[in-house]
Design brief:
alpha/beta; 5 strands; 5-stranded mixed beta sheet; about 100 residues
Length: about 100
């Protein structure tokens, strides 16, 4: 297993990419998409995990969801936050699944 830490150039938010056996899981959506794509490489992204509802941890959630076409997981509180465009500063709502 390989864990990559990516720091955003804009907000200095941190995103983690966990790579294992050709698959990746992304933890939080705070880094620019191109940086995350580089960390993922040729792997298939199988899930995105949102750890909590601070906007800097989910700022790029819509672009990640479009790019990787995978489920997004988080607590019910986090999902409710993401679904509210006033709170999350996004007009589009991603497809979300919570555990």
């Amino acid at each position: 297993m390989e864990v990559k830490r990516i720091v955003s150039n804009v907000l200095e938010s941190i995103t983690y990419v966990v790579n294992l056996n050709g698959n990746s899981i992304i933890v939080d959506c705070g880094a620019e998409l191109e940086l995350v794509k580089k960390a993922v490489g040729e792997n298939k992204v199988v899930a995105i995990l949102l750890t909590h509802e601070h906007y800097d941890h989910m700022f790029y959630v819509n672009s990640y969801e479009k790019a990787f076409n995978c489920p997004i997981y988080g607590t019910e509180e986090t999902i409710n936050f993401v679904k509210n465009p006033v709170w999350n500063f996004n007009e589009e709502l991603p497809r979300l699944i919570w555990s």
